[in-house]
Amino acid sequence: MLLKSDAYDACIGYFADNLSIFEDSAKPASGEVIADIVLDQASQLLMTFCQQQSQLSNETRLMVVAEGDKLVEDIEQILGKCWEHRATQEQIEFIKEYFLLVKNSLDSQVPYL
Questions:
Q1: What pTM does this model have?
Q2: In this predicted structure, what is the pLDDT of residue 3?
């Protein structure tokens, strides 16, 4: 499904290409931890997707949610030690933008579900 698509590979590549956003710890950070922001964005993505794709079977929805878990694990692996750091505003904006890209990629896979 999504995690085995070219669209997902492009999303992961985009995230990896922008790792420098997560390497500068000199910028002021918010009260939110990066892990919490990623988990919130993933949850919102999955809820929105499932609401918009009401024609999908429960089995397919469960597969999508399972892939959401794997997506979060992929991001955690990419970020490594930054996962538990407090986020800067730039990092928050990037994460939100990234999940919009993932949502678009997921939407493009609907015909194959």
A1: 0.89
A2: 73
